[in-house]
Structure formats: C-alpha cells, structure tokens
C-alpha cells in the first residue's frame, strides 16, 4: 500500500496537479447527517433545501423530463399528506373497533359471532326491545355461559373474577410487547414528539416497530380498563406514519427540517382521528406541539386532517354515521347567571391540573430514581389489579371511560334509561317529549351521585399513578372524565336548586316553574374542558376540539370561560403543563417558546471555556495533520470544532462538525492511497504546493461552514436565548474584534436558564 501511495504521488506531480488531493468534489455519503440524541442545525438544513430548489428550478428549463420531475417534487408534499391521512384514519378506525370488542370481552361474549361487541351483537338481534336494548339472548355474560345464571352471588363473583383476569391478561400482554419489541412505544408520546419537532433526533422513536407495537399495545392497554386514553398515543402513531412516508421522498428523508414539517401535519391528523376534530387537530399542532410552523405546513396539516377524518368517517367505527365521539343535543340555551358555576368548574380544572402535574411528576421521578423503575411489568400488573378490583363494583368505573363521558354529557330525554335520569315525573305533564321541565331528583339520581363522587375520587388518585407507566397511555380521556364527573355533579346541584328555589333572585329572571332551565350535561362538558385545560394548558385548540367533539357550537362561550379560568388558576401554581414537565423530567434539550428570560447576564458569563477551564479546542486552517484531527476526535466528545487562521491570531474562519470530519477522513483513507496520518488537512481554497517527498494532503473546504453564527462577548443573554429559539441553532461562537473567545451550545443555554430559575442545571442530559 505504501509503495502504491508513493507511485500515486509521483504521477500526480507529472500531471501538474501537485500532490494535493481534493476528493471532496464528489459528495461523501452521510455528511450533513446527525447522530442519535443530537440537535439538528435548522439554518444549515434550510440553506440545503434552498440549494436543492435552485438546482431543480434551473434544471427544469433544460428538458420536458426535468420539468415533469420538478412538478413531481412540488407535488410530493401533498402525496405524503394524502398517504398519512389514509393510514392514520384506517389505523384509528381499526383501534376503535378492536377496543370496543375487547372492552366488552371482559364482561361477556356474543354467541352469534364472537367478534361482535355487545352493541353490535344486540343490533343484529330481532328479540331486543327498546327498554332493554342492552339485553339480548345472543349476548351472554360469562356467568350465564359457565354456570347458567346471570343473577345471584355466585354469578357476581364469577363475573368479578373474570373481569379482573381479562384486565390483567391485556395489561400483561401490552407491557411485555413494549418491553421486548419497542421500548419507545410506551407513554403518550407527545412530550417526545414536541422535542423531536424542536429539532432533536431520537432514532427509532418514529420507526416501523414502534408504529406496529404501539398500535397493538394501545388496544390492549385501553381495553384493560386502566385510567388512560388513546388520544395522545394516536398522535404518536400518526407521526410514525408521517416518518414512514417521508422516507419515500428524498426531499424529506434527507432533510431533517423538511421532515419536521411533515411530522407537524401528521400530529394534526392524529388529533383529527382521535377526536373526530380536524380543525381542532390543526390548531393543536400549531398551539401545543409544533416548534416551526410555516403557512405551507398549515395548509398541508389542514389537508392531512381532512383526509384522516374522511377515512375514519368511511370506516364508521362508532356506528352512528357521525365523526364525533360524544354527540350532544341540548334543547335549552345557557343563561348569564350560569357563568358563575362554569367559572367555578374552571377553578376546579386548574386546581386538578396542578395536583395532577405535581403528583404525577413526583411519582415518575420516584420511579426513575428508585428500584420501582426496574420492575415495569410488576408495576403495570399491580396498578391494573388495583384498578380492576376497585372499578368493578361501581357501574360508572366498570364501563369504558369513553362510554362514561358520553353518558355524563347526555341530556335526559323521555327515552333515557340511565340511572342519572331517574327523576320524579309529574303525572299530569303534557309537554313535547324533547323539552322536559326541571323535575325533582328521584332515588336513582341520588344513588348515582354517590357512585359518581366515589368514581371521581378513584379517577383522581389512580390517573396520577397510571400516566407514565411502560404502556401506551393517553391523558385526554381520563382528564375529561374527571371534569365530566365533577361537572355533572355540579349541574345536578344547580338544577335541583333552581327547581326548589325558583323564587330566588338569581333564578327569578330566567327560570319559571315548569320550565327546562338547567342542562346538567352541559356542566359535564364544561367541566371536561376545564380539567383537560388545567392539565395541558391548551386554550384555543381545546375549545375548538370540545365543540367539534360534541357538536355543541352554541356553547362556545361557557367553554372559553372555563378554559381560560383553568389556565389562569393552573398557571398561578406553575407555568408548565404536563408535557413540558415530562420533557424536563427526561432532560430533553427543549427551548420552550413560551418561556421568558428576564435575567441580565451576558454571553461571556455563559460561554465555554470559563476562566478556570483549559482553552478552547480549535483546528487551524493549514497546519493540522490527519493524526492531530483523529487524536482530537478520540480525546474529546465535542460535536464540532471552530477553525482559526492560527493558534496565535485566533481569527475565526469557520466551524466544522465532528461527524462530518470523521466521515470525510474515513472516506479519504478508503478511496485515496496517499492519505496517511502525517497528511496535512487544509481548510482553505488554494492550498500551497507541497514537496514531492511529503505525503498527500487532504482538502476539506467542502465540509467547512464558512458562516457560523457569532455574537460578541457583550451580547445580552436575552438576545442569545431569542436567537437560539427563533433560528434553532445548535451552537453559537463568541468573538471580540474577530478573535474567537468561546462557544455557547444549546445545552449551555438550557443549563444557564435552569440555573437562573434555581433548578438543577445537570438535569439537562442530552446535547
């Protein structure tokens, strides 16, 4: 090899090119890519995309074929959105149908076709009466099937035992699949997706295995009856679809910033199918998840959410030909005096949000720092056992949470058979069926109130311990359930007060005797919005999701009042919602746009190296050898190195990424024989001729970033934080009069912000 190298050196000289080798005129594979758990450089990705556009535009004038290729490139974004919408809608439909069937499987089985859920089984039956629409001979509880009895102590014990066993089986399968095949499939996924969209790389988080396992285990986890929802995980599933389809087009697969535009739209499609709320999905992506959301992404998100909602509507998983999850029809308007209880529900939502965030984060922190974290399967089994054992005796916690919310939202019509509608009827009442006046509550309502109060306490406690376990777990539905229960209790209280005291001054103006004044279902809806807002701190998207979810368009003002109140109350105790808290708990480098930095520090206070530390590691433009570079890479773990004219002058030339250096040297050693450890590395355009006896030099001008972002040492940190946020920088160099002084990375900024907020700066784990 050495002799071949010297021969090449001599032939190079004969050809008059000197022995300078610029193999970098052809691109090196993988240069410009990122390692796992690193932050992307938004500016670099943006400029690469602009170059690509320019190239396509200039080529499209050359021939018809190039023009067609340019058109295809322009359309590729819409094609990806179409595919994401179709796949997200299909998966959501399948998940909904599977969850319905498996939830009912815990209580019984359909004899005519075992794959039918309870509802589907009784639809197909000819022997079902309207009053007993849940009872039909084809559907049998486990006790009827096994011991031939549906009533009595032995039947109850058998049903209880099988309910708990099915729940444990589903939960065990879910946690085992997550542990063995896709550890990233656990949790809600929204905190990680927020971090990924802010420019962080988590390889495998949106991979094929994660998609498959998350879809399967989500069905199992929700069916097990645990206090969790499927909405957050559906956003993760949709983003996995987005990642999968963006790999089909090099425009997205090779550019991390462009890929994030696709993922933002996929998140919108996820919420669109989770709630049947396409516009709410777009607003959720904009308000809650996305970091960079240009206008183009807004239109594409809208299109993806539309296709996803249309696909779900075609599958019709709820069997009511509607897209919405909890359709409501209230027959009375709301009155100004009711704003007071609505605002009270907002206060309750804010307080519950604070309690939940603090309690859940304390528990998750305990899980991370104690032995508990080493036994995830045991934890899931224990929580499932407690949930199932406590839930079964209470009819409101036994059924699925979505069914519970649906019943709490419902208005009591003449045909309702629910215990919540057991009012004492006036025998000489002759009024239209849908406008029933307020009536005194019967024994059924009082029994239901007790059961709901117990269900509320149970849900509040168990949800704190459930969210964050090693299974897919969403937060929207449990939060809404807590709010809906509280709201319904308040609603019934206000209704009874209005009935018994209609001569009070607050009821006199709008509540005449014999009129239908108060709708308890509306209070449940407002309470649900308040609690969800308290936990996530959403406002605009929350209200839109709620009215799309229920179809209750005229109740926007009560929903807005509750959402704003819950946000104010929760923010008074701490600015972070549950997702931001989990991001901080996991130590992800997330610079929140909503955070304000008000401290009067300068760039020189934050930059590395500090006074006590060794000087900054730099490369020189024309006096570093390959061996020097390799030693530097081996001895340090920095992600990049500034390049200066010389160590004496320290005038800045540019910045080179560690990964690009590694790949370039590796590629040069493989392809060119003259490159040895003593070869000089040049970062300049016109490298000098080197004598024939010396080894071949290596020219790495192509991988040098000639315009790294710089600030002076007296730049206020407020400005630096703003620059990092708005431009999505990885690092920023600090200079004085052109001389390099130090470097500030995103991690340094986050640590400084944590320190200023009296938090542990070492909690930022990743770079």
UniProtKB/TrEMBL annotation:
Protein origin, superkingdom: Eukaryota
Membrane topology: Multi-pass membrane protein
Family annotation (InterPro entries): CBS_dom, CBS_dom_sf, Cl-channel_core, Cl_channel-4, ClC
Listed SMART domains: CBS
Keyword check for Transport: yes
Regions that span the bilayer: 75-99, 160-182, 234-250, 262-286, 335-357, 377-396, 448-468, 475-494, 522-547
PROSITE patterns named in the record: CBS
Location(s) in or outside the cell: Endosome membrane; Membrane
Family that this chain belongs to: Belongs to the chloride channel (TC 2.A.49) family.
Official protein name in the record: Chloride channel protein
Organism per entry: Huso huso
